[in-house]
Design goal:
By secondary structure, the protein is mainly beta. It contains no helices and seven strands. Strands 1, 2, 3 and 6 form a four-stranded antiparallel β-sheet that branches. A three-stranded antiparallel β-sheet has the order 5-4-7, with no helix packed on it. It is elongated, with a radius of gyration of 15 Å. It starts with a strand and ends with a strand.
Amino acid sequence: MLAVSAPGLAAGDQRWCQRVTVTFRNTGGSAATSGTVGFGTHIIGLLGTDWGTVPSSQPLPAPIAAGTARTQTYTVCVDSWRVPLGMRVDTREVTATWR
């Protein structure tokens, strides 16, 4: 079983990017040798309106041995045209699949 922490967020180099730090804890009996991390990045308007969610994925930082944890920071970006001036991104969902 692989537990995923709540995302730690920091501003990226562009308004359409965000640095997302996640800790993966393997509580199972065998190593997670490969997998994918999924992100749900929300586009937030000037007044706080959520205009939509853009999914993306990146590789899991494998292997993660049984009984250990691993922290990884990802740069998560959406298309620049989705985030006009005055808007921002907010990555709220992080999921993981593994083998």
